UniProtKB/TrEMBL annotation:
The lineage of its organism: Bacteria, Bacillati, Actinomycetota, Actinomycetes, Micromonosporales. It catalyses: an N-(ADP-alpha-D-ribosyl)-thymidine in DNA + H2O = a thymidine in DNA + ADP-D-ribose. Residues 1-176 form the Macro domain. Gene3D superfamilies: Leucine Aminopeptidase, subunit E, domain 1. InterPro entries: ADP-ribose_metab_enzymes, Macro_dom, Macro_dom-like. This is O-acetyl-ADP-ribose deacetylase (Regulator of RNase III), contains Macro domain. One of its GO terms (biological process) is peptidyl-glutamate ADP-deribosylation.
């Protein structure tokens, strides 16, 4: 089992050499525009474009034999020869001033959009993807920003998936 490594820096500029995957949590509405995705989009247009396409085309994903867009799913987008962005769908809806906005409307008392089971499922898939590529995984404190999760809930999920299967995993905290 590997230890989780914490560094101060920008997850979109991952440290080290070799194959690397930048992981972040997305919502199941197909919305993109706040949080780490702003930094991702400034560096590479393809993760946003592919995420939006994945969401838009999800109705016929089964027919095309591609991963269906849903909670727990992961989309790998190549942004360099040995660099990928993993769009992990781990939040149900988005938080707004009116409450939790989901595909069925607003839930004033809907709670935070984070879905820990979906993050666990996505991290399991991500573990397999990283091992197949011989890649390290780089991420902010996923699920703990706009998704409203707590690190005390997310960290054990990372330890039980990526770290337990010896995938080098680095968590980035932006400088204060």
């Amino acid at each position: 089992m590997r230890n989780l490594i914490f560094v101060e820096g920008d997850a979109t500029d991952p440290v080290g050499d070799g194959p690397r995957i930048i992981a972040h949590v997305c919502n199941d509405l197909g919305a993109w525009g706040r949080g780490i995705v702003q930094a991702i989009s400034r560096r590479w247009p393809s993760p946003e474009r592919e995420f939006r396409r994945w969401h838009r085309d999800s109705a016929d994903a089964v027919e095309r034999d591609t991963a269906a867009f849903r909670l727990g799913a992961v989309q790998m987008v190549a942004v360099g020869p040995e660099l990928w962005v993993a769009n992990l769908v781990g939040q149900h809806g988005i938080t707004t001033e009116r409450g939790l906005r989901t595909s069925t409307g607003y839930e004033p008392d809907g709670g935070p959009p984070v879905r820990y089971d979906a993050i666990r499922e996505g991290l399991t898939t991500l573990t397999d993807q990283a091992r197949a590529r011989g890649a390290s995984v780089h991420m902010p404190r996923i699920g703990c920003g706009l998704a409203g999760g707590t690190w005390s809930e997310v960290e054990p999920l990372i330890l039980a998936t990526l770290c337990a299967r010896d995938v080098p995993t680095i968590v980035y905290d932006l400088p204060s």
